[in-house]
Amino acid sequence: MSMARIEDLGDRLVVWNLNAARRAALTPEYYAALHEALVTAAYAPRIVAVILASEGGFFCAGGDLGVLATRAAQTEEQRRGNIERLHDLVRTITGCPKPVIAAVEGGAAGAGLSLALACDFTVAAEGARFTAAYVKAGLVPDAGLTHFLAGLLPRAMAARMLLLGEPVAAERLHALGALSELAPEGQSFDAAMALADRLGQGASVTQGTIKGLMNSAAAGDLFAQLDAERDAMARAQGLPEAAEGISAFLEKRAPDFAKLRSET
């Protein structure tokens, strides 16, 4: 039985984690499917978003501890290689020019939380709980989790999550601005689909450029960011999306960016 599936809905891809029996713990099949979907989206103009979702009512429990328990028998170099495969997924999510949306039901834990926070939009169902309890297993966070939590949360809350392993409710994270949207229980996927609808009405190429600028802003300094924004704006002004958007504004009509994608 496959542990992952890519659903092609025309203008978006949905990557399903099918490992419901293990609370959607990460598997090699899921790694491969997510990577394939992100690369496909990056090069297909018709695709405006990628959605991450899971069967079984829980977004992702992260690494399977049964598998991790066998890692002590490996060399440290082999263990680094295993971790790098996970980290490559995080790099691909953030590097994909199309927005990536996480639809979180039930909760996310460990590397599952990392993947959810690596996305451009994290939609969570009410009552979902987010956990980074690596410390309880004698392990440390990976997949960028310390980076994401340090950027999204006050240090005091991040410390309780990481050093004590305390879970945090979706409602509290949303109130702090760490989640994009709260949805009624059982409706996070519908909310993610609605977000993809809105993205599909926008300028997809421009969205990708803005995503790249947001990523560089988080890692760079002001002067470097000013140069990046200058270059991106100069390119944008010569693209068909800008011509359509400016014309629509001046003509007091809604822009038709989807038409541009159909013409490519």
Automatic annotation (TrEMBL):
GO MF term set: catalytic activity
Pfam families: ECH_1 (PF00378)
PROSITE patterns documented for this protein: ENOYL_COA_HYDRATASE
Entry superkingdom: Bacteria
InterPro entries: ClpP/crotonase-like_dom_sf (IPR029045), Enoyl-CoA_hyd/isom_CS (IPR018376), Enoyl-CoA_hydra/iso (IPR001753), Enoyl-CoA_hydra_C (IPR014748)
Family annotation (CDD domains): crotonase-like
PANTHER family: EG:BACN32G11.4 PROTEIN, ENOYL-COA HYDRATASE
Family: Belongs to the enoyl-CoA hydratase/isomerase family.
The name this protein goes by in its record: Enoyl-CoA hydratase family protein
Species in which this protein is naturally found: Limimaricola litoreus
